[in-house]
Amino acid sequence: MRHIDTVIVGAGQAGLATSHELTRLGHEHVVLERSTVGERWLSRRWDSQTLLTPNWMTRLPGHRYAGADPDGFMSTADFASELRGYARSIGAPVVSGTAVERVLVSHERLHVVTGAGSWRARNVIIATGWCDVPTRPPASAGMHPSVRSITSSEYRNPASLPAGGVLVVGASATGVQLADELRRDGRRVVLAVGSHLRMPRRYRGADIMEWLDRAGSLDRHIDDMPDPVAATREPSLQLVGSAEPRTIDLAALAGNGVELVGRVIGASGRTVRFDAPLAGRIAAADRVMHRTLDRIDAVIARVGLDAGEPDRPAPFSPPEAPTSLDLVGGGIRTVIWASGYRRDYSWLPTGVLDEHGELRHRHGVTELPGLTAVGLRFQRTRRSSLIDGVGADAAIAARLAHARASAAAA
Questions:
Q1: Domain that holds residue 166
Q2: Tens of pLDDT along 240-275?
Q3: Is beta strand 29-32 parallel, antiparallel or unpaired with respect to 2-9?
Q4: Sheet containing 165-169: order of strands
Q5: Whether residue 379 is found in the same domain as residue 297
Q6: Count of structural domains within the chain
């Protein structure tokens, strides 16, 4: 049993940012990583994937992008390399290849059990990320055996799939990017559309992320949201990072031959069923987009920025969509579930999770003394789960851990 003030679980951007802040405070800690730094950005991403935020937004405590292409988009492999360099530069005490099996509570301390031994700590900071375990909805269990069924984290490139058409389930950032890539490969692609957020890649002469940053949208606080639970479930924006900036919304996909259908509501053998209100769902996404662009226009007018003319995406009315699809008869040989992620907190003490298995917390602080989290979706602000946003929450978690250790020593 080793004794230490704080254990950070996870050596991604959230864990490393927290390590930087603890080091700055002179606080003893260790970072336990089940694999290696940046591994998830390599093993759970497809070959052509890039970050959705421009390079200038690659900012962590004590580090910011300093390359020659601030408006470009880094590949996930390059970002993994960036994380490894960051870990070295801050001297992060990372112990790789150490999976946490259980956290136990004993005598006001937290025992962190791993396959390589245990740690006794005052604080445990969860930094395992929001995109932990890909979800497969119940419908995925009923697929015909001739159809390959995978999650988006298993997809690598078009050549890795069987020949034939593809049904992509989910129309957030991942789903629309995979549908686009597979259609460009010449395949029949059907995209099942649930809740989504439409947004242009560029607006009035600048990247949309720059406008969201300037307008304060990324700093919107969870406590100011009308429905905080719904806010944490916001789908990711339909964006793609590419050398030539382009919009990848449903209108663009349909124009390139992607077939749009509703949300998957069931599957039985070779038949998949979809719900009907596709047009209403698309209209709702357009209303959200226009409200966001209205706020950006107001900021531009208020500060007198020299921006281009409003160039909003045209309204989009989808063609009538079928409510069922014969996969085998339609030549569909693969279904890709791009339907989101869940968190695996089975290693945490009982009592800290809600009925859905999610962490109960307020701004990352749980009811269990010493147990906090960094990097959750809308943990404090909309920026919290972004590379550009983990630093602020990491600083808060580090100060709480340091204060608790200092109080115990007093």
A1: 135-337
A2: 999 888 999 999 999 999 999 999 999 988 999 999
A3: parallel
A4: 148-151, 332-337, 165-169, 189-192, 259-261
A5: no
A6: 2
